[in-house]
Design brief:
The protein is mainly β. It has helices at residues 2-19, 57-61, 240-243; strands at 27-31, 45-47, 64-66, 73-76, 79-84, 94-96, 98-100, 106-107, 110-117, 124-132, 145-150, 158-164, 176-181, 190-196, 200-205, 208-214, 230-238, 255-265. 10% of the residues lie in helices and 39% in strands.
C-alpha cells in the first residue's frame, strides 16, 4: 500500500508540475503534420515568387524564388519539410518555400510554439516569425514584426528573438533583440516560442526564457503595435542582406528546416 501511495503521489506531483508550464492556457490552434503530402490548405497558404515588382527579394535582397512544389515544401513522416534548393526559377538561382497562416490562423496574444530543426551552411536564413494581419498602423514596420526564431547559417547555433516597430527596427539599428546559443540547433529539434501578453513579449527555447521586451507606460503604436492580430510565417530565405552577409556556399544544397509541430495557446 505504501508503494502504491508513493506512486500516485509522484504521478500527481508530475501532472501538477507539467501544468505549470502553460498555466491557464488552452490549445486553440495546432498542426501536428500527421498527413503526408502538401501542407493542410485549411491552415496554410503558400506565398510564391520573389515579391517583384513591389519588394524584389522580399525587401531584403534575398536570392530565392518561393514555390509550392513538393521538392520545396511537403509533409512526410510526421514532419513539415521546407527545403531550399539550388534550382533556378523565375530568374532566381535558388528555390524555397514560405508558408503563412494569414486568415487561417490569426491571434492577438497567446503562446506560440514551434518545434523545429534548422538548416546549416552559409547563405541559409530560416525564420519562424509573425506579421500583422490587418496592418492596423500602416505598412512595415509601423504595424510590427515578431521574430520568434531567426538563424543565419554563417553564425551557427546562435538563435535570435526580436521585435521590430516604427521606433525599434533593423533599418535604424534599434531593434529589440535577444540572442541565445543552441549548439545543436541544426542537428536536433528544439521548441522555439513566445509568450505574448498585453504588457510584454517573452522569448523561449525549450521553455527557458532568454529575452523579454516590456511595453513602456508611455508607449504608443510606434513602440508597441502589438495589440492586434498577427499570423505565423515559416520559411527559409537564401542569402539576402543578413543571411548572405558572408556569401552563399553553393556546395551545401539542398538544406531543410524540419518542423515537428506548431501549437498556439491562449
Amino acid at each position: 500500500m505504501r508503494q502504491a501511495h508513493l506512486f500516485y503521489s509522484i504521478l500527481i506531483i508530475s501532472v501538477l508540475f507539467g501544468c505549470k508550464i502553460k498555466p491557464n492556457k488552452t490549445l486553440v490552434w495546432a498542426d501536428e503534420f500527421e498527413h503526408a503530402g502538401a501542407p493542410d490548405s485549411t491552415k496554410w497558404t503558400n506565398e510564391l515568387g520573389d515579391d517583384c515588382p513591389d519588394l524584389c527579394g522580399w525587401g531584403n535582397n534575398e536570392a530565392q524564388f518561393y514555390t509550392k512544389n513538393p521538392e520545396n515544401v511537403r509533409v512526410e513522416n510526421g514532419r513539415l519539410i521546407i527545403e531550399a534548393r539550388k534550382d533556378s526559377m523565375g530568374g532566381r538561382a535558388y528555390t524555397s518555400a514560405r508558408l503563412i497562416t494569414k486568415m487561417k490562423g490569426d491571434w492577438r496574444y497567446g503562446r506560440i510554439e514551434v518545434k523545429a530543426k534548422l538548416p546549416r551552411g552559409k547563405g541559409t536564413w530560416p525564420a519562424i516569425w509573425m506579421l500583422s494581419t490587418d496592418w492596423k498602423y500602416g505598412g512595415w514596420p509601423e504595424s510590427g514584426e515578431i521574430d520568434i526564431m531567426e538563424h543565419v547559417g554563417y553564425d551557427p547555433g546562435v538563435i535570435h528573438g526580436t521585435i521590430h516597430t516604427d521606433s525599434y527596427n533593423h533599418i535604424k539599428q534599434t531593434q529589440k533583440e535577444g540572442k541565445v546559443t543552441i549548439a545543436d540547433a541544426q542537428d536536433e529539434y528544439h521548441v522555439y516560442a513566445i509568450n505574448w501578453t498585453i504588457e510584454k513579449m517573452e522569448f523561449f527555447v525549450d521553455d527557458k526564457i532568454y529575452h523579454v521586451v516590456n511595453k513602456g507606460a508611455n508607449d504608443t503604436f510606434r513602440e508597441w503595435p502589438f495589440d492586434h492580430r498577427f499570423h505565423l510565417i515559416l520559411n527559409i530565405a537564401v542569402g539576402g542582406n543578413w543571411g548572405g552577409k558572408e556569401g552563399i556556399d553553393d556546395l551545401i544544397w539542398p538544406q531543410q528546416m524540419e518542423v515537428d509541430w506548431v501549437r498556439v495557446y491562449q
